[in-house]
Amino acid sequence: MRGVGKAAVVMLAAGALAAVPERRAEAAYTFSIAEIAGDVVIIGSGTLNLSGLSFDNTVVGCTCIEPFTGTLSATSGNFDLYEGVTGPVFGPGGAAFTAIFGGDNVYVSGQTGRIGVPVGYVPGTPLATDMAFTGATIASLGLTPGTYVYSWGGQTFGDTLTIQVEGVPVPEPATALLFGAGLLGLAASRRRR
Fold this sequence. Notes:
The protein is α+β, with helices and mostly antiparallel strands. It has one domain. The chain is 21% helix and 41% strand. The protein is built from three helices and eleven strands, in the order H-E-E-E-E-E-E-E-E-E-E-H-E-H. It has helices at 4-19, 154-157, 173-192, and strands at 29-36, 39-46, 54-66, 71-83, 96-97, 100-103, 106-109, 114-118, 127-134, 146-152, 159-165. A six-stranded mixed β-sheet has the order 6-9-2-1-11-10. It is globular and about 40 Å long.
């Protein structure tokens, strides 16, 4: 798939991820990461309060993920970087890059204690981003399923960014039941011969 075809797959996957009825982490901004249709899709949305953070500088980013440093960079071009964030790592994986990205620039790194937002971002303005790693799995990217919370500013004026790594999909009971019935039918047909 090229160009528009791949973009259509990402948008379809984004819609499918949004429709998943699983429990989602509650945060000011949340990245949800899941395996969908043979790709790893990352969807982010929410707002951010920058109170309690110190402006660092404006930098150029990349669209990448580095679980062992707690870094998720959904950025293309320049973004404003702020210091004062604390947060965990979300797996043993090294750096992985993708060119499939859309939406607003959002960056977080637990190792460096920084968060990035679009240049001139007004706190409280809704942000949304998506990115995809084609042909990847949660395991191949070195992600550990779970909920990872980055925070800043304390209880007085603090905020959070959450990364929710979904587990590998398990077949629903009806699918497993149909599969089992098919195996029984196959065994019965072989027995008759």
